[in-house]
Amino acid sequence: MISSAAASRAVSLGSKTKHISLGVVCPMANERASAARFVREVLAACEPFGFRGVTFFAVLDRVSRDGTLEILRGLEAELPQLRVVWAPENCSVVDAYLRGYREALDAGCDWILEIDAGYSHQPSDVPAFFEKMLEGHDCVFGTRFGEGGRITESSFRRRLISRGGTLLANLLLGTRLSDMTSGFELFSRAALQEVLEKGVNSRGHFFQTEIKAHCQPLRVAEVPIHYRAASDSVNNDVLRDALRNLWRLFRARVAEGRARASSGGELKRDQLG
Question: Mean of the per-residue pLDDT values for the chain?
Fold first, then answer.
């Protein structure tokens, strides 16, 4: 739950958010024990801001087999803000996120918040995203490694991969974020549309880094989050996907730089001529 001080700040910002429609995108799988409580807590964190409307898009597919779908469909009848999206065609977790993004955009949402279920992301961190967004940013990213951020219940291997991935991505892609591999993100409608138009090629965890790379020309900010990792799901296939797509983005960046340099040289020759 958010603190009383945070709730008071949210209410004071209500005049700025009352015309904004918020979509919350949350893929879920096998979260029977916590799904309903998590949905309620996220909605409670959003409520003090007085948004014009809030819709929680819970995206599920055939990976979820423990009855989470049935629980959420029952909750959907009780909570008008909840929309259960059944997506049996999904082939990866990336498909679940992309389906949720499109649902939020199709619903006309002005801001789209991405959050992971199962309390790996904390509903109490949600207000910080809204406060930062209202400063004039296009997207706000959660950071586990910036000042105030933290990770608990995570293996040393996963922490090493996340930190190493951030350093390598910043080096090769020219980005300057303190956390390039996390989820928990807030986008303006225009920013998310731009990301999707550029395309998301990764089918693994690296898609979060790919999205951040696409957002580099935009006004971006980070807020500290508490990340709780229940399992180490970064296997060798995930790492291969990350390295392959990181190299692809690096080559695209180099090619773009050469194209700009070439066009600049041609412009100077035209001016001299």
Answer: 90
Q: What pTM was estimated for this model as a whole?
A: 0.88
Which tens digits make up the pLDDT trace of 187-235?
999 999 999 999 999 888 899 999 999 999 999 999 999 999 765 566 7
3-state SS record for the chain: CCCHHHHHHHHHCHHHHCCCEEEEEEECCCCCCCHHHHHHHHHHHHHHHCCCEEEEEEEECCCCCCCHHHHHHHHHCCCCCEEEEECCCCCCHHHHHHHHHHHHHHCCCCEEEECCCCCCCCHHHHHHHHHHHCCCCCEEEEECCCCCCEEECCCHHHHHHHHHHHHHHHHHHCCCCCCCCCCCEEEEHHHHHHHHHHCCCCCCCCHHHHHHHHCCCCCEEEEECEEECCCCCCCHHHHHHHHHHHHHHHHHHHHHHHHHHHHHHHHHHHHHC
Residue 237: per-residue pLDDT: 83
Give me the domains of the chain, ranges plus CATH numbers: 4-272 (3.90.550.10)
- The predicted-structure confidence for 14-27, as pLDDT tens digits, reads as follows 678 999 999 999 99
